[in-house]
Amino acid sequence: MTIVFQPKIALPAGAVAPDSYDESNGYTPPDSLVVSRNRDGTAASTYGELAWDLSAYHPEHRKKNLYFSFWKDGALTHQRELLSRETRWIMLVLMWKLPGPSLSLGSILNYGVMLRALASFAEEHSCQVQVVLETEALIREFAKAQSHGTCLRLLSALLKNLSRIGKAELGFDVAGTNAKTELKVQNQKHMATYKQVAPMPTRIYAAVLERLSAELADWEAVAPSFLALVNECSRDRLVGRSLSARHKACRDDAECGRAAVLTMTLTELQNKHGIATYCSAKDLECTVRGLTTGLLKVQLIAKLVIQAFSGMRHDEARALPQDCLEVTKSNGNTHYIIQGRTTKLNHGQVKRTRWVTNLEGCRAIRIAKEIADAIYTACGATAQSEGSATGGRVLFVNPRYSGLAGRPASPPNVYLPGNLALSEFSAERSRLQPIIEEGDLLELEQLDPHRAWRTEPLYAIGQPWTLKPHQFRRSLALYAQASGLVSLPSLRRQLQHITDEMSRYYARGSAMAKDFVGEDKTHFGYEWQETETESAALGYMLKVLLSGVAMSGGHGNWVNHRLRNAEGVVVFDRARTLRAFDKRELAYRETILGGCTNTGECDRSAFDWLDIDCLAGCPNMVVKLPNLERVIAAQTRFVAAQDTTSLEYRTEKRKLEKLVATKLEIQRQLEGTAK
């Protein structure tokens, strides 16, 4: 009986599946078997090739090749050819015979990395890849040579899937239970040493946000002129080019040659448009290619701002459609929603999703959209050719399509975003990164005292903070909470709106959280929810237990009597405190007088913004003397401005008297402690 195997690879919309194959002509397929197809149905790669082009199976049609040439040096020898064929066979088995759901493109590419590493190991040991996978001792030796936990997880997943396929389809048995168990233990050890992405210390975080905003402001000052020059240079192949390039462009046209001599240089054009100083400050070379680089740099800054004020990942921001911003108003408040998609779900298939942002995120999107409009206009994008593989124009379309750095031979089927990896922009990185100070390390040590921050080279005092885009996600999740963790006034102002919006759209129990987050555990809203208790616990420890200020109130008095030692120092178990927050046995939110530790619904008046009702014996109340003194000063001024014969005066005066009485009580307690 002939068995026909259908390809099992997750296909994005518009992609054409590779061929099926049967075993009637042999156990392994012929070299001519089509293993990938372009979107027009033509063959992209065949089984016999050393690289399979899988670009058509990427949701955005990005260039993605699956390589089987595992060697770095030397020529293709007979042994290498055999090992390469082994890895191709194993990959084909994974893509055509694996039971269960289809593999995502990301999984396929990851398995390709692992198979190349196994082939290299097999070459060193003068054996087959099959022998390595069959032999527990070789698997253990290979695993020990892997320095990264990701490699171990990939190896474990590979062995598991090959076992599921079975000897009948694979042709050999994979290593047994003992090897898999050892891999699991080794992977757990790696995970134990894994260091979570560090949040930016608040001073550094605020400085980075300010510098990003300043970069946008620099661009906004020259944007109309810069984009006008881009348009001028893209419309005429002579404008802004070097003299030799102009003569070359019209070599056979004498009239054109005369025009080429008369055309202004780019330096003259920059001065004419008033952007020469900007181009020099941003390290842009004085060529039309430099204009392309300038657009790319602004796109990078805009993308970072969007990430900073939405929490989305790099790939999610890079794939945003041009018309991604939705602005709505309700009850006098403006809400900014970003419409996008994520590839973290459904085995790489496109999933629509939304994020909350603020005015600064909105500003960055509008700047990016203006640049995209200019690029699409320059390249003459039409309704038939424009857009990404997911439909619609992309926001961060590659500036190279403008033709300033060499126009593509013909309009592409899909316009792709540019490379916006921060690691590729050293000048921008250096402008954004503040110098690490002692206070920054002290703050990191407060966040995680069990991590030896001072032994890690990345956090050495005096060197620039190494900015990584994922830090925005971690920092936003930690600091954009009403937990009191942020003390820096400038950062409070920067995050105020986004804190309110995320509480509205992402908070557990919110009617809108299900619509935005749902069951998607990769959405930033889920991370925000998961970080809520951590942020509250850290805020509580920082603002209450480690504050060093005089306290009163129900919970404040409990801390004074139960946790303070004879020297007046609060002594507590950090791990136990964190567990109490995780179990919802303790909560914390900052209030005008100090804080509240209520874990349930509050039965106090919602209109009592001074928390006067809470002063009357609420067990969850934390009153801090400095806060109380500031409120008394403000309330004193307010009462003095009222008509002494009015009801409002009498009401507010009674509140002031209660506040003053509380202050006197705290001072008496302090005097008693001092005696």
What attributes characterize this protein structure?
675 residues; 3 domains; alpha+beta; four-stranded antiparallel β-sheet
Q: Would you write up a description of this structure?
A:
The protein is an alpha+beta fold and about 675 residues long. It folds into three domains: about 5-195, no CATH class; about 200-430, no CATH class; about 545-675, no CATH class. It is about 50% helix and about 10% strand. The chain contains 26 helices and 13 strands. The protein has a four-stranded antiparallel beta sheet, with helices on both faces. A three-stranded antiparallel beta sheet has the order 7-8-9. The chain has a two-stranded antiparallel ribbon with strand order 1-2. A hairpin with a 2-residue loop joins strand 7 and strand 8. Helix 1 packs antiparallel against helix 2 (about 105-125) and helix 8 (about 200-235) packs parallel to helix 15 (about 360-380). The longest helix has about 35 residues, at about 200-235.
